[in-house]
């Protein structure tokens, strides 16, 4: 995870915020991420079309489906599992995304797509 500051104040847009408010601003995928078998903390029922869109964009729509908030499988390559974690991050719709060596496990074609298309958004 991320370390909390020992001293000082946190400001976003000239407004002081606390640690909890800071955590609400970002979504992170760390290199040692864990992928649950279902979606937690997100109202997935209102996001079915968005989920389908991201599965297609992330090129895993033929590998995994999400029904009732559960993944049809998590038996995917590490790169594909990271793409599924990225989908969850996108659904959280945060202002800030942190990626710890995210592209390291992607094939060269998708790595290029990640840097030139996805990050460009």
UniProtKB/TrEMBL annotation:
- Specify the ABC transporter domain's residue ranges: 1-103
Coiled coil residues, start to end: none
Keywords for the protein's UniProt record, in alphabetical order? ATP-binding, Nucleotide-binding
* Gene Ontology molecular functions: ATP binding; ATP hydrolysis activity
Q: Which InterPro entries match?
A: ABC_transporter-like_ATP-bd, P-loop_NTPase
This protein's source sits in the domain of life called Bacteria
Instruction: Give the residue spans that cross the bilayer.
Output: none
Protein name (Swiss-Prot/TrEMBL): ATP-binding cassette domain-containing protein
**Organism expressing this protein natively:** Bacillus wiedmannii
